[in-house]
Amino acid sequence: MMDRAWTLRRQIASGIFLSLGILAVLGVASFVSVRSLVTTNTRLDRSRQAIIEIERMLSGFSAAEAAQRAFLLLDQDELLTPCEAAIQSTEQNYASLRGLTADDPQQQRRLERLRPLMRERLRELSASIERHRREGLTSALQSLGEVRGRLAMTAIKSVLAEIDEAESARLAELSAEIGSIERRVFGILLGGTGSAVLLIIVIGSATIRRTNRTIGVVVERMQRSSVELQAAATQQVRGAKEQSTSSQEVSAAIHELLAASRQIAERARRVTEVATHTAAAARTGDQAVEKADLAISAILHQVRRLVSHMLSLGRKSQEIGAILDIINDLTEETNILAINATVEAAGAGEAGRRFSVVADEIRKLSDRTGVSAREIRALIEEIRSAANTTVMATETGSKAAEAGAIEFRDVAVNFRRIVELVGSTAEVAREIELSTKQQASTVEQVNLAIAEVTVSAQQTETSSNQTLSTSSELAELSRELASLIQEPARA
Amino acid sequence: MALDPILVRLAEIRRSFDASFAAPALHHDKERQSVLAIQAGEGRFAVRVEDLAGVEACRKIVKLPANLPGLLGVAGIRGRLLAAYDLGALLGQPSRDLSQGSAPLRWILVCGNEPEVGLLIEEIEAFVRVAAADFKPIDQSAAGGHLLGVLQHRERSLGVVDIASIAAAVARRAEESVDGRRRQ
């Protein structure tokens, strides 16, 4: 369950972190031990230095006493130089010793006791020298024999011996401590390192086993997946080839469709042009129809006036005919009167012959008048007949003109409707042209998209081949990896 | 109808009318007789002017309760009463029927020897003067024996009516009728 829950990375990281923890514990223990060793060693060095400083102080006092005696005996001032140097170095050694034993209160107390003794001894040395200079050698030699100086020196040596002894004891103690620390360090280094190595080996082995098992499962799955991927890649290659072929066929069809769309767009443009020209011609025709309508109305008005005039002419002709009737009657009456005059002239005998001639003239005149009246009547009748015919024809023409005007108004209405329809047709044709252009544009975009799809299909085919190749390589690699993993198991 | 032919005809009428005044004065030809070409009934006849007392326009005719052949009634002419007879009927023309389109009787020929008798005719077609040689003899049995001869006028033969014979026949019938009523 932990194998399943813990990832390979987590397992390896846990092993590494556990090993690092062991190494860290080992390092910390080693550091602490080494640090303790260094500290103890430092303290050991300080004790050694303190012992050295004690020796130097003793040597300094000895050198100062020797230089004092030499000066007292030889009375040469240059012999005082080593004395002064010894005194000065003794002070320095005291200060150094005080610093080296600062962590030890007992040593500090001893050094506190030493300090007045040192000053006393040094003051005595200086006093003997001054006495020599003031009182001479004898007085000086007497001072050498004083007990107080020797006691001071003895006390100094005694205190220094205590200090030295304490330091030596401490040195021994520190040395023993260093040895203990060294053993512990060695133990830590050897034991810890060995334990760490063993633990790391155990953890590494466990991690390797788990990793090996996990990788084995994964490799097995990867093998199956590689086989499945290979099969899928093979199928994908076939599909990609079919898709590529189909895309090419679709591209060809779209190309033909694009050509057809362009042809349709061109024809729609021509239709739009024709419709526009037709609309313009229809508008011109509409104007002509309006003018013709006005002209027909004017003609109808003139025809009505003509009918009115012709009817008036007919009435006038009738009036003329009535007048001619009167004239004819008068002519006949005149003729009858002439005939009667002739009868009377005939009855009058010879006397009436001249009268008969006059009556004959009157009768002839009456005859001519009658003839003329008849001719005029005939003319009037012709005029009346023509007028009646004209009136009838004009009325017929008027009715025909009115009917024609009505028909023409219907024609005008229909023509305006045609103009509107032609305008609508032009608009629709324009919309068809725009739609067809948009369709052609869309088909071009589809063509481009199909071309990209074709390229993509070809790329898919190529990548499918690569996938197939890669899956084959992956299957081979998984087999090799499985053989690498399973080989130790066989051994 | 074009006006030009009318104007041409009017000009001809005007010229003929003016020319009549420019023609030399006529002389009365004694050898020629004045004759009226008339229409009586369905036939065309000629009447000598010298046989007439006058020609009058036909006015209103008042019918009489008499049954004399051809008698239409009486008509008032210039203050006189005339017995109005249908000349066509007297000449043996078919009976008149106005509903069948017969021409109306427009003129009254007043007989010269019988001024009380008026003969009604449809139309006076012409007044002509003819020479005696233009008269041709005719069978007396035609037209009830009231024709004097035949006159050639405008390529037609016109029977010349004997007005005196007609008037005598009418008077005789009237007397006979009066006598008959008296006898009744």
Q: What amount of the residues of chain B lies in strands? A: 35-45%
Subunit arrangement of the protein: heterodimer
Judged by helices, strands and strand pairing, the structural class of chain B is alpha+beta
Q: Give me the side-by-side strand order of the main sheet of chain B.
A: 9-1-2-12-11-10
Distance between the termini of chain B: 69 Å
Spans of at least 5 consecutive residues with low confidence of chain A: none
Measured between the Cα atoms of the first and last residue of chain A, the distance is 28 Å
Name the pair of protein chains with the most residues at their interface, and give those residue counts: A-B, 29 and 26 residues
Unreliable residue stretches of chain B: none
Report on the biggest sheet of chain A: none
**Global geometry of chain B:** globular
Mean pLDDT of chain B: 82
Describe this structure as you would to a colleague.
The complex is a heterodimer of chains A (about 500) and B (about 180). By secondary structure, chain A is mostly helical. Helices cover about 95% and strands about 0% of the residues of chain A. By secondary structure, chain B is of the alpha+beta class. Chain B is about 25% helix and about 40% strand. Chain B is built from three helices and twelve strands, in the order H-E-E-E-E-E-E-H-E-E-E-E-E-E-H. Chain B has a six-stranded mixed sheet with strand order 9-1-2-12-11-10. Chain B has a six-stranded mixed sheet with strand order 3-7-8-6-5-4. In chain B, a hairpin with a 2-residue loop joins strand 11 (about 145-155) and strand 12 (about 155-160). The longest helix of chain B has 21 residues, at about 165-185. Chain B starts with a helix and ends with a helix. Classes of the chains: A mainly alpha (about 500), B alpha+beta (about 180). The interface between A and B is medium-sized, with 29 and 26 residues.
